[in-house]
Amino acid sequence: TVMQTTDNAGISLRWFRDQFGGVLQKKADLAGKSVYNVMNELVSKTEPGAGGIIYLPYLAGEKSPIWNPQARGVFFGIGLESAYGDFVRAVMEGVAFSLKDCLDLLQDENVTAKGAIPLGGGVAKSSIWCQIIADVLQRPILKLKYTETETLGDMILAGMSVGMPGIDRKFGRKMADKGELVEPNPARAELYERQFKKYKKLYARVKDLF
Fold first, then answer.
1. Residues 43, 36: contact at Cβ < 8 Å?
2. Judging by beta carbons within 10 Å of its beta carbon (0-12, 13-18, 19+), is residue 21 exposed, middle or buried?
3. Count of CA atoms in the C-beta half-sphere (13 A) of 198
4. How far apart are CA 204 and CA 118, in angstroms?
5. Nearest to 195 by CA among 6, 7, 55
6. Average pLDDT of the chain?
7. DSSP code of 76?
8. Which one, 46, 69, 129, 178, has the greatest CB density within 10 A?
9. What is the pLDDT of residue 1?
10. Is the peptide bond before 57 cis (omega within 30 degrees of 0)?
11. pLDDT for residue 116
12. What is the four-CA torsion angle of 183, 186, 191, 192, rounded to 10 degrees?
């Protein structure tokens, strides 16, 4: 079994919301919406590439693939033209680049095949974020209907341990079959490949400063 992890995915957006989302929260409250829905709407109006902003999502260090507990988050490429939505998109794209960084290291043919990648957790609740990840990875994303994957995994293990009927190793796949498929946009592949290379170079240039 081969496994890679990204430690600062959904928490990156929550951190950004907590630190810089005060005004947006008020607008969301007045509109009767979730602040995350308002963020998604802002991102949907921005262009891929986040206006040149690149985000390293290492707020609390990172395990794979950089294995550096001292690493921290970075926003690079900010200009006078940078808008709030660009920052939110940069966070989403940075997390997607982190996933691509992990995926590129996996050599197992079953993992690196072109099949859909199941996605759960808070990230899967955002359609625009799922699209960004699909575009960065150039792989279909299976947006799981049941997004609380850790809880579901615990329930499956508990059910298997006590021999509950119908609960087996393939039960998780049955849940995944109920998901929504998000196809990558091939027109964005070249842009995101350029941005990903900058993402890699950026960490290589600043890692000694941490």
1. no
2. buried
3. 18
4. 30
5. 55
6. 86
7. E
8. 129
9. 47
10. no
11. 87
12. 40
The residues facing 75 across adjacent strands are 55
Cβ proximity of 57 and 8 under 8 Å? yes
> CB under 8 Å to 73, separation ≥6 — which residues?
8, 12, 55, 56, 57, 58, 59
Tell me the residue length of the chain.
Answer: 210
Q: How high is the pLDDT of residue 167? A: 67
* In the block, residue with structure tokens 């206006």: 51
Task: Enter the tokens of residue 11.
Answer: 């928490």
Residue 171 to residues 154, 167, 194: CA-CA distances in angstroms?
A: 12, 6, 39
Q: Which residues contact 36 (CB under 8 A, 6 or more apart)?
A: 13, 17, 125, 126
Segments in the chain forming alpha helices (H):
10-20, 22-31, 35-44, 84-103, 127-137, 149-161, 171-176, 189-206
Q: Could you give phi then psi for residue 180, rounded to 5 degrees?
A: -105, 130
Tokens 């990903």 correspond to 196
Tokens of 74: 């970075």
Over the stretch 64-115, which tens digit does the pLDDT of each residue have?
889 999 999 999 999 999 999 999 999 999 999 999 999 888 755 455 556 8
